[in-house]
Amino acid sequence: MERTTVAPVRFNKVSDTEQDGGGQDGMTAMDGRPQRALMIEALERAGLGAEDVWRTGLLLGGNTPLAGVRAYLQRRLDLQERESDILAVAVNAILRKRGVDVVVPLLAEDAADLRGDDPGQGLRADTAFLLTAEEQEGQRLAAVRRTGLLDTDQEERFDAITRRAQGRFRTSSVIVTLIDEHRQFLKSAIGPVEQNMPRARSFCNTTIGEPVPVVVPDTFADPRFRWNPLVLGEPFIRFYAGHPLRSPEGWAVGTLCVIDQEPRAFDADDEADFHSFALEAQLQLNA
Asked: 20 to 30 Å CA-CA from 236: which of 85, 108, 124, 210?
């Protein structure tokens, strides 16, 4: 595993004429920080760009537009602490998946400073490293409850997304889920998927523990799932793609999933469209 490090760097303060979009949500002119230098160095080594970070940042609850992320990585604009921390978490997640061990630090030093602006909200997910596994799950479950969607009827705003996703991917099933302590609740479902399935048996229980989507082209070839009862028995899953859906604080509260009974490839265009559908579902969860 490659570890990316750079010496601390301090950038000049961004001038008013250089802000290029200043005043948008999450953006402000501040002194540059080593956090950004680490991001830039790691992204350059991995051949990744602003759009990669922006897409993952959105799913972690970020509000910075793509133009703002580009300006930030070009050292033309600084971000508020919450937004730059979300980008740091996004960069770490992307590069970890590629086998590059990076540690882009958060700016905050303790969890007490990492609560949302609303005192009714819980801790943000980028504080997870400060919490025990039990505390992390407690925060995640609280975020699930804050959606107010558990045990509610199906709604057209979600069903429209699952219908379009099924049309795009031509799979037997598409679901939008919420995962509570013991079960997988289906907020929207097309196909033969059990309502209130035990969480331990659900593929989506794996997905909510990952920072990026889980794509399984062939369940028989994946040791995580080949012995799962949903593979060996009804509905005989052979292909699965699951995308975590996050609360405004960044906790994974549920998933968007596409499922089929035949193995299949999932290319870059598929991944991009899947990401877009997931973002739509996430926006509805947090509406």
From this structure: 210
Dist CA 156 CA 222 (whole Å): 34
- Cα separation, 198 vs 179, in Å, equals 10
**Which DSSP helix (H) or strand (E) runs through 186?**
strand 183-190
Residue 96, both tokens: 């970890």
pTM of the model: 0.65
How far apart, in Å, do the first and last CA atoms of the chain sit?
40
Q: Is there a contact between 212 and 56 (Cβ–Cβ < 8 Å)?
A: yes
CA distances to 156, 161, 218, 243, 261 from 235, in Å? 25, 22, 14, 20, 8
List the one residue out of 144, 269, 141, 126 whose CA is nearest residue 211: 126
pLDDT digits (tens, 9 = 90+) for 21-55: 333 333 333 334 578 888 888 888 888 899 988 98
- Strands of the sheet containing 183-190, edge to edge, are 197-198, 183-190, 173-179, 252-260, 239-246, 214-216
The number of beta carbons lying within 10 Å of the beta carbon of residue 77 is 25
| Residues 193-232: tens digit of each pLDDT | 999 999 999 999 999 999 889 999 999 999 999 999 999 9
- Beta strand 2-4 with 100-102: parallel, antiparallel or unpaired? parallel
